[in-house]
Fold this sequence. Notes:
This protein is mainly α. The chain contains 13 helices and no strands.
Amino acid sequence: MLRSLKAYPALARAAWERAAAYRAVFAVTLLNAAFPLVMMAIWVELAREAPVAGFSAEDFIGYYLAAVLVRRITAASVTMELERAIHSGELSTHLLRPLHVVHVYLVRSLVTRSFAAGLTLLAAALGVWLTPGDQYDLRPLPTMLFIAACILGALFEFFVQFGIGGLAFWIAQVQGISAAFQFVKAFLGGYIVPLALFPSGLGQILIWTPFAVSIGMPVEILTGRMGSAEAIARLLAGAGWVSLSALGAHWVWRAGLRAYSAAGA
């Protein structure tokens, strides 16, 4: 493991240069952030009459700006690259190297996220500055919990996307599966609609599901909508989902490699 970590700086430099060569991708990524902002405008208008489930108009602005930022931090885009590598035979080159291919894609994902998150942070900071009231809990403990939640969310997204990408060993197109997962996660994970706006029974179930790990949980910590004790409990649950997603990705990868080798690749 230590030997693998030593390769991370070199992998990061290569991934940074690769990401910088495709700046247009980040412009498209920012455009994709428009949908929650549309939802924000709808809820803000409704909340001007009276608070909705405890959300004022300012609360909705703070929530959705945080959701956009968190999604930029935690999202992964490994599925398409892994699918292409498997179908083109490029994966064979990676398999000849001493470093496991998962490390290459993990560093690429982290560097790409740093680009996207940095650009979105500027827009979010401007929006918060123009919105009256304190929207975020930036005290030391909540801030540390928020950072931990973002790390868990990024790892969860990566392993899920890596596992879905591994299905390309058997399936010609895995992008549809990835898109379906992203849609369900966005709707049930707090990106499109805050989980607090769901019926109480359903909302209490959804906060413990894997869908909330990468968006809903970090956003609720940042906006101060949960206490430290609840945040720690949900972080532990999130760590469990990350472990399960990593095990699932590992199983898919091992099974896929056996099929890949059997095919003579």
